[in-house]
Design brief:
alpha/beta, 9 helices, 46% helix, Rossmann fold, 6 strands, six-stranded parallel sheet, 215 residues
Length: 215
């Protein structure tokens, strides 16, 4: 199950869906509220968690949940509440605690730009919605209590890997892959490397359980 980042959609996962299906796995990518086929909705964290839960509940076996950026934070928040429904989690481009003064300043600026420039019909308002929804959320808090396997994948040039080492300390056993020459959108900057992480994760999970694990 694949969950995209801010101001994108399920379409960013085309290379991953193709590679996973070619490898014999079931793969689905969803749109979060405010994005893609659901662009007419406003983004909220609860709405995002409900979208993930609908998709996960439709799986015949617990899936590997894969999230990039906003999708990574939403996937981690979902795992914190419903890890019994998952086989594992892959987190990409979301290794930073989203709190403090930078978050407040960015949220304030994006809210006013949306209002002043009349961008409510576009996608900029999603940034304001996202920042408001994630204000106060601690990914490390959810990460510390997970029992399912977790993989962290970051592009080496990604600015959102500031707390990468804190993530590793928060949950011993986390598998970290840093992809050279890739940035924040690591799945599109280095699709072959990213796909290999997913396929290896699915292979590891399949060796633990008797049934195939979808992504």
């Amino acid at each position: 199950m694949l969950v995209h980042g801010t101001r994108t959609s399920s379409a960013i996962w085309q290379a991953q869906v193709a590679a996973l299906r070619q490898g014999g796995h079931t793969a689905h990518a969803i749109d979060l509220p405010g994005h893609g086929a659901r662009s007419g909705e406003r983004f909220t964290l609860e709405g995002a968690l409900a979208a993930i839960d609908d998709a996960v509940s439709a799986c015949t076996v617990p899936p590997l949940l894969v999230g990039l950026s906003l999708g990574g934070y939403a996937s981690l928040a979902y795992a914190g509440r419903h890890e019994g429904k998952l086989a594992g989690v892959v987190l990409a481009g979301c290794s930073t605690e989203i709190k403090g003064k930078p978050l407040g300043l960015y949220r304030h600026a994006s809210t006013h730009v949306t209002r002043w420039l009349g961008l409510g019909q576009g996608t900029w308002h999603v940034v304001a919605d996202m920042l408001a929804a994630l204000a106060g959320y601690s990914p490390l808090r959810d990460l510390r209590r997970l029992l399912v396997p977790v993989w962290v994948v970051n592009g080496r040039r990604d600015p959102l890997r500031l707390d990468e080492r804190r993530y590793l300390r928060a949950l011993p056993g986390v598998r970290l892959t840093v992809v050279p020459r890739a940035g924040h959108d690591v799945n599109s900057h280095a699709p072959a490397a990213f796909n290999r992480v997913l396929l290896d994760a699915l292979h590891e999970l399949a060796s633990r359980v008797p049934t195939p694990v979808p992504a």
